[in-house]
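Exercise 7.
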Amino acid sequence: MQVLKEEIRMRILHAAVESFYVDGFAKSKMKTIAEHATIPVGLVYSYYKSKKDLLDAVVMPVYRKITTLLRNESAGNNDTHYFFETEIPFLIDLLETDRKQAVILIDKCAGTKYEAAKDEFINLAKTHIKNYITSKKVTDMEVKDDLFHHMLATNLMESFFEITRHYKDAEWAKKMIALLAQYHFYGLEGL
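Solution. The predicted structure, written as tokens, is:
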């Protein structure tokens, strides 16, 4: 029985990230991934049974990180200090370590179980925004409208996705996320 080596697994993952990032899941080929990893294609299948299994290995860790963060928000962490002290550093770290995987997840998974991930993230953010507005005891009926919550969540998450897509460096991302957060929270406080 062949012993699977961590170094080969990492080469496969790195090649898959690059392939999925450039070509998307649908157009990526296991043969091309193997060539970029400088291994025979059969060896890729020793580590991953299919291209879908390889996609899971690439994006599932990022998917879990983002959904955990958003579920924690939706569970009642409505404090702006929590956002600035916990979530911004988390987002910066995500961009520094897993940016390409995040782009793959939000833009390049058509036809997979992840193709609705972006909508799921928006819906989790919507729940958080709805909880935040409810905690402020807002009486304006339009502000309580579900479509309004959806628009705010879409605006916030799409803005973060744009930062992810156009990432320059950690300092730039930190400034952009801080500006986005100030805009987001100032607008919500104004309600």
